[in-house]
Amino acid sequence: MDNRPVGIFDSGLGGLTVVREVIKYLPNEQIIYFGDTARFPYGPRSITELRGFVFEIIDFLLSKDVKFVVIACNSASAAALEAAQQYYDVPIIGVIEPGARAAVQATRCRRIGVIGTQATISSGSYINAIKTIDAGVQIHPVACSDLADFVERDETTGPKVEGVVKWYLDSLVRAGIDSLILGCTHYPLLSETISRVVGDGVKLISSAEETARELKETLARKDKLREEKTPPTLEFISSGDKDVFRKLGARFLGKEIGKVERVVFPLREKVVGVEEG
């Protein structure tokens, strides 16, 4: 038994899709969510910079006495998950491996598409994760540099968005994929448009549900599930505008968001124990 909260963070609001699934699978757990909206997007940033952000945020969450950390950001998971797991004593999971497993289980023709930010795709993390499970799968990755920006602006449908999605996904349609990993936690809000572009025969894989499942299994295995009978708390923290967080965050979370705390901190210049590059 461990009644401390779970810490979840993302570059912006997309990680709230993970929070939504965690609430569904672990309704008794307390959650602290940090959205680094002031430094969004993470996609174009260097690995060194992203590692600095990740370590800084984990330090902050540990100051709130969290028992577990979920990096609910594909770019951050790709850049820093392994380094963070090696450095910190607290259990840490990302969103890439759960999504990769779900895609391999779903595909019938063994042709999987992956869309994500430049940082996520360039890292090769999804390719490595998928190949570890099934080395024979054909993987078709595409970097979609500005799709998350549309979601942050609350533009998820319409001719303009659909045109951009078609431009990015045309090669995947021609490749004959039957599973598509939405390799950014913002992309589930574009599911309607993406499905229309790729067709009903392509299964969209959001890692949010799989990550929540893994969190539940890990907490149970480590005997760290919360057992208090009092209602759990949800704490929301942002590095950017609180009103924007409340308004747009409600769409990701699927319900209204009340109080949002704003916390701003500078990037620490050096991350101890992490190699640059």
What attributes does this structure have?
Rossmann fold; 10 strands; four-stranded parallel β-sheet; 16% strand; alpha/beta; single chain; six-stranded parallel β-sheet; 277 residues
Describe the structure.
The chain is an alpha/beta fold and 277 residues long. The chain folds into 2 domains: 6-94 and 209-262, Rossmann fold; 96-207, Rossmann fold, CATH 3.40.50. The protein has 11 helices and 10 strands. The chain has helices at residues 16-25, 47-63, 74-87, 96-106, 118-123, 125-133, 147-152, 159-175, 191-198, 207-221, 242-253, and strands spanning 6-10, 31-35, 68-71, 92-93, 111-116, 138-143, 179-183, 203-205, 234-238, 260-262. The chain has a 6-stranded parallel beta sheet with strand order 4-3-1-2-9-10, with helices on both faces. A 4-stranded parallel beta sheet has the order 6-5-7-8, with helices on both faces. Helix 1 (16-25) packs across helix 10 (207-221), helix 2 crosses helix 3 (74-87) and helix 8 (159-175) crosses helix 9. The protein is globular, with a radius of gyration of 18 Å.
